[in-house]
Structure formats: C-alpha cells, structure tokens
Write a structure and sequence with these properties.
Structural class: alpha+beta
Distance between the termini: 59 Å
Number of helices: 3
Strand content: 15-25%
Helix content: 10-25%
Number of domains: 2
CATH architecture of the largest domain: 2-Layer Sandwich
Number of strands: 6
Strand order of the largest sheet: 4-5-3-6
CATH topology of the largest domain: Alpha-Beta Plaits
CATH class of the largest domain: Alpha Beta
C-alpha cells in the first residue's frame, strides 16, 4: 500500500473513529489522518494529564500541528518557559560546530532537567535591538524553579566554546494562570 486511500478504514477495526486510515506494520501503526482545522482538546481531555500517552511520529503535509497540554483538575503543576538567545563565536566553522553541539548534545541536556517537556530551536530572521542568531524554547513543568535553575547551572559547565557566552541571554518565565490573574485584580 502506497496511497492513503489504500489503507484500511478505521485501522481495520482497531480505531473506531471516522477518517483514520491505518495498517499495522510490525510494531508500528502507520496511518493517515485528514482533519479540518479544529480544536481537538476536548477529545483528548480524558487521558492522564490531558495528553495521549502514546508516542507519535509523523509528517505534516499541509497545515500545522500544535501540541498543548490541557490543565485539568488535579493537574496544576506550575509551567515554565526557558527562553535562551545566543549566537556562535565568529571563527571559521564555529557556527556548524555550535549547531552540531546544540542539536546533538545540549538538547538532550536540557531535556534531562526534571520536568522538561520539549526543546525547540529557531533561527532569528528579523530582529529589533537583539543581536542573537538563535532562540531556544524549553518547556518545563516543575514544582520548584530553583531546582530547575540548579540543574541548568550544573549543565552550563559543559557548554561548547563555540557559543558566544559574553552576551548570551536567558529568561525563565512562569506561565500565567488566568485564575491567579483574576484573583489578584
């Protein structure tokens, strides 16, 4: 089978919801889903933490997918966003070495912090008063931000010399909770 319409509807009966075509290939479920733009949060609110526990890999052929974690009763872990802005040093080959280190070593270090959920990197394409080339976003759920910062500091000693540390910027921000904002006004 090489075309989506050749895949069995409803995964051959394994997935009783309309529109999902899939086939089992050894240990993997290979599928095709075509979905209109929709808020799928209500459909995924019942799994633990509001997120399906199954690992998912795939390609988006058109459109976008945004992962979000749903706050449910009993799931009130504080959430943080670590924002890092940095650039490589200016030597020959430094940018290649910096990116290789970031993607193959530092991302894993960041994800090893207790409560780290994801790490995403971006190349800066427009700027206003910031001279950094890259932005990294690390989503973290943790009870204590001091523990997060301590773990991050322990990993800072292993930073490549190809990162310009003279002007790197980072911010650890706590997600605002609408209920907390309403209570303080």
């Amino acid at each position: 089978m090489s075309k989506p319409h050749e895949l069995p509807q409803d995964g051959g009966g394994r997935w009783p919801h309309t529109g999902f075509r899939s086939v089992q290939c050894e240990e993997l479920e290979v599928g095709f889903t075509k979905a209109p733009g929709a808020d799928c949060a209500p459909a995924h609110a019942s799994p633990p933490g509001g997120v399906c526990p199954c690992p998912h890999d795939g390609y988006v052929l058109k459109g976008t997918i945004r992962r979000c974690r749903i706050r449910t009763e009993g799931n009130n872990m504080p959430r943080y966003l670590l924002i890092a802005l940095n650039s490589p040093t200016q030597g020959d080959g430094d940018e290649v070495e910096f990116n290789d280190w970031y993607d193959n070593i530092h991302k894993a270090d960041l994800l090893s912090v207790d409560g780290a959920q994801s790490v995403r990197r971006f190349r800066v394409i427009q700027r206003n008063r910031i001279d950094k080339d890259y932005v990294s976003l690390t989503e973290i759920e943790a009870e204590n931000p001091d523990v997060v910062m301590q773990q991050l500091a322990e990993r800072a000693s292993e930073i490549t010399d190809k990162m310009d540390r003279t002007s790197s910027i980072f911010v650890l921000a706590e997600e605002l909770n609408v209920d907390d904002l309403n209570a303080s006004s």
